[in-house]
Amino acid sequence: MAEERKLVSILFADVTGSTALGDALDPEDVRTLMGRYYAIAREVIPAHGGTLEKFIGDAIMAIFGLPKALGDDAERALAAALALRERVANDELLGPVFQLRIGVNTGEVIATSDPSSGEFLATGDAVNVAARLQQHTNPDEIVVGERTWKATEHAFCFEQPRMAEVKGKPRPIALYPLIGPRATRKQERPPLVGRKQDLMQLALLWERVLEEERPQLVSIMAPAGTGKSRLLEEFLDTLGTEAEYHVAVARCLPYGQQIAYFPLRGLLAQLLGAESKMTREYISSLFVAAGYQQTDAERSAEVILSTLGIEGEKSSDRESIFSAWRLLIEVLSRATPLILVFEDLHWSSNSLLDLVDSLTAMRTNTPLLLLTLSRPELLDRRPNWGGGRQNFTSLALRPLSARQTRELIRKQAAELDPEVMAQIVDRAGGNPFFALELIRGLKERGLTEKKAALNQLPDTVHSAILARMDQLQPQERAILQVAAVAGRGFTLPMLAEALSEYSLHEIAAALVELLERDIIEHTEKNAYTFQHVLFCNVAYKTLSRTQRVCLHERIAASLEAVAGERLDEQVEMIAYHYQEAIRLSRQSAVRMPLTLDVPKALRILRRAARQANQIGEVEEVNAYLQSAISIAPESELISLYEQLGDSLGFALATKEAYQKALEYWEKSKQAQGEDPDFLRTGARLLRKLIIYYERGSGNEIYGIEELPQWRERAQVLAEQAGDQDELHYLAICDGFFISVLSNLARPLPQDIEERVQRLQEACSYFEQKGDQEALNIALDALISHYVRFGSVEKAVPLAQKRLQISGLPASERADAWQMLIRSYVVQGNYPASVQALEQAFGELLPGQTPTYLVSSIRTVIEAAFERGRWDDVERWFAVIESVYLPFFSDEAYDPSLAHLVGIGSYLTALQIALLQEDQARCERYIPLLKRFGELLAEQKKVLDAELSLLLDGELPEELKELYHTHLFVTIEGMKVYNQRGEAQPSRILETLSNDGRIDRKMRAHLDLNQALLERDYERANELVTQLECLGRVVFAAHMKIVLAELTGDLTRLTGVRPLLEGLKDRVFLRRLEALEAA
Q: Model-level pTM?
């Protein structure tokens, strides 16, 4: 390949005072001196393994690491700099008149290995910095950059660094003046831990798993090359072949964070014994054999396979996925003790990390040893990985001791000269992979005797691997580079597709050579893989961005061609390569042209997005579709943005996606004219945007002004297109729409009746068509309508009917339960609401977290609080905490959970803690609520206001505007004022007089506040009784005490003391006791 990225060291040297020298000497003398200087450079630089790139006047530029890396190029550059300075200083002609300034820098460049091309050998920032370093050097001084210093400070001595302002750099850079080579190489020895102790600990944990039949999670963490995989192999060997156990391995790929559950494919095949058994029938049979019902077994099997894109069309939420995998592993481990291994977990997706973590939370006893192998980078993403679990053990592998490294070298290359062996021990730094790679590199070059000098040995893994790669034949090197783009696994057909410049025979022969060199190895089905992933990393880094883009495109096309009818199993991988090609092309300062087949790439990216959406992976859906949008022609953008909006739930990005789709629809309106399909698309987009506001974000007041215009236009477009589905969908919109409008003013009775009739017609229409998705939304609109406008007795049977719809996604089914429970609460049937919530819990898979039910739980918690059923609050709040606390304890907290349904439950719990004067619980809940606030946007003010009312009894000045603009804050503030015997000023309530959201309870609160303002205590007592009948039992008890304080009349306090004592309401008990004492 003509161009490559290479890690090199660049040397710049110039002569101090050369201009003055030219003035003092004859031009011929100057030429003679410079010629002698150049001659010395031509001797010194190549002798140290460098390449002289050019002479520029009195300056020399040399590169170490081109055309081939030698592994210790930074050291060679410094040795050459010292030799050049010494040779010039000792030269009888040059010494008296020449003083050199030398700068050396190490970094990545784009390089060509063909100097005859006439182009620069190397370009990049590392070259520019080297030149700047030389310009900031004193006469007769050698300075190096920080990266060079880090690579060589074990072999050379330096003065203290100084900082210099360098042109083109935003911040000063460090200059390290070179003193000279160390007499003895510096050795860094971190704490040493022998592998024998690690093996003993693994064996002990395995015995514990077998004895206790409880899962154990062991995290083996260490830098690359320290021996994690080797330790695992040795541990498994110690178990022997007679013991009854089963091992399955999931290998995470370097691009794993973009591919959610791909490693589970290999794990499942090993668990089941063959890929042919990865079917719904076989997996469900395992569940049935373990005692599960057939329907549950089939559902779990389908969830597992849909995770991998193998079977199943239904959507699966993450909790269903986690639960299904936990159950499968539990079932299999009951039959045979399991050892599950996750290699390179630091490359996994967040979804897979969560799944692995959830496996250790199995509540049943099962013999399972879970081993995760990762680099320390995992802790950057999950600082608390495994923390807080009793069944978690962390093994941090330390570098080998010198004695252990020597033993390793003797086993691998007993013929090595002792001096060479000592040098390897010194350079390996306790990393067994470093040592083994150094040995292989020496053997391949035939250097096992003393001629294998110290400065020929690589000193880092990157340099070691690069040095080995530079010894390969061109076709062997090209194979490694293509394979690095493909990932750790690759096949001969894929290589042939990507390397058209080589024949199939040449590629096959090169593969044999790479196998013999132990760089690659065979896997199943005539595939190959890198023996160590670091070869993959370094090979990939040698490619220029242009080459990477081209190869990602080719590999995507090759994978699609090979996949055939099994495209869904490979679609994530193919989409990944398209994504990478697109991303890399967009990184270039001058945007690179893409040669990929755009229609084909769009089809794959859309298909991958649909598959990710089925299992609820919103981040992956967004990534796929954004990549598609970035390359799509304008004619495709409408449908792409619509698909994006359909996939994101009710997030802010949903609205933005639909708005973008509408923008492009408007732009193409003139060209499309009156085409029915085009008109239908416009109506559909407007309807989806309307429903976003009405159903998901009805409180976004700033969007309401546009809703009537959107609604009217959607009607016109649907009528012009003759689309009956859209016309009935618009009736559904009207059902939600009138509820939203009631935020501003209560609709007239005839408007309500008309909307109900149209909603009923829409329900019948979609039910007759068998459109379950539309029927679900239509029923939701009708139920919401009845609940909002006082016909809750009609809402209950409809909510029950909605729950009978088959195939509802988890989020929609949870919403159906929420509307049924809310209907019961509004109806005043608290026992029925609790019973319905318990039924909803009964639908959960064993071990499944009830994330989608938190809204229903919140409704019951608030109703229980109002009715004085604080024992029920405690019961259900424990469930809320089981959902939220794991996220609070994890730095990778998911902000999407920071929704008011969770906040409302925590606020209720805090209110009880305050009334019971439970300081410990207050100190626990308040920080958690503030943490919620940090993750909120516009709703943060509402949370701050609620906290201020509970803790301070008043809003701070900057939040008092919410009294006038936010109904919830106004009502809550009024209750706080009233319970301390005060009333909110009437001016605050003026804006609420015609708010259509005010129900009977709110109206009673408003009237009570007015009675307190007018000091009409008889009327106030009547309203307190009315609120008590409406279920506000605790508030009514509090207000009876308040009115007794205001009037001195204690006759209405019957039954208050037993209630407060049962609730342990210390705050109002104290006020009651003060009244009785007076």
A: 0.66
